[in-house]
Amino acid sequence: MASESNVKYPVQQTGILDKVVNKLEKAGDVIQGGLEAAGHFLESEWNKHKFGLILNNFVTGYRIQLISKASSHALRIVEHPNGKLVLDGKGEVGEHALNAIWTVVNNGDNQVHLYNNDNFLGIVNGEAVVLKVGKPVGAEAKLQLVTNGDYLVALQSTVDENKCIGVNNDGTLKSCSSADPSALFGVILIKNTENEQLEEKK
């Protein structure tokens, strides 16, 4: 009788069924990837045509404030100690808070540019930033409005649909998806003569 150390075990052969299952799993991965891409495309198209009452505030020339659901304060521009303009969600609410008032440029398809004193709100590499007008304002400054019910909206990147401007409870910013409650803003329309004139022309 041979010792156990001399025993040669056969190499496990892949049966035909295993090969079929393996190929189906690979095909499933390809199909899943295709379905996810199609899902992102359909969601993107849906966001371009979805209607909510809140979208009535995004008319070219309107001046608005974006009130974070998480911090209950306005999205504003502030100067960092290093002199750079940055954003936070700690702004005051009201027409006196000039650094928290955004002028709307509506590009259609629920896509907008928002600016404050020639500084555009943008999303670059997933992070909310202030884009100076002196530089070419590209796709990073174009934001997709994603409604959540009639009274809340998320500001989504048109470059990467997985990135939105988010605000933590303490007013600091974060990158998140539109499904994250931190991405939601209410909108206050700042009444002024320009807005009233635009309203009369509608």
Protein traits:
12 strands, alpha+beta, 2 domains, two-stranded antiparallel sheet, six-stranded antiparallel beta barrel, 202 residues, Trefoil (Acidic Fibroblast Growth Factor, subunit A), globular
What is the architecture of the largest domain at the second tier of CATH?
Answer: Trefoil
* SSE succession: HEEEEEEEEEEEEH
CATH fold topology of the largest domain: Trefoil (Acidic Fibroblast Growth Factor, subunit A)
Share of residues in helices: 10-25%
Q: Give unreliable regions as ranges.
A: 8-12
Compute the number of strand runs: 12
Gross morphology: globular
Kindly state the mean pLDDT as a whole number? 80
Polypeptide structure, described:
- By secondary structure, the chain is an alpha+beta fold.
- It folds into 2 domains: 15-49; 53-201, Trefoil (Trefoil (Acidic Fibroblast Growth Factor, subunit A)).
- The chain is globular, with a radius of gyration of 25 Å.
- The model is unreliable at 8-12 (pLDDT under 50).
- The strands form 3 sheets. The protein has a 6-stranded antiparallel β-barrel with strand order 1-4-5-8-9-12. Strands 2-3 form a two-stranded antiparallel sheet.
- The chain has helices spanning 16-49, 193-201, and strands spanning 63-68, 74-79, 85-91, 102-106, 111-116, 119-124, 127-132, 143-148, 152-157, 164-167, 173-176, 184-189.
- It is built from 2 helices and 12 strands.
Quick structural gist:
Helices cover 21% and strands 34% of the residues. With 202 residues, the chain is α+β, with helices and mostly antiparallel strands.
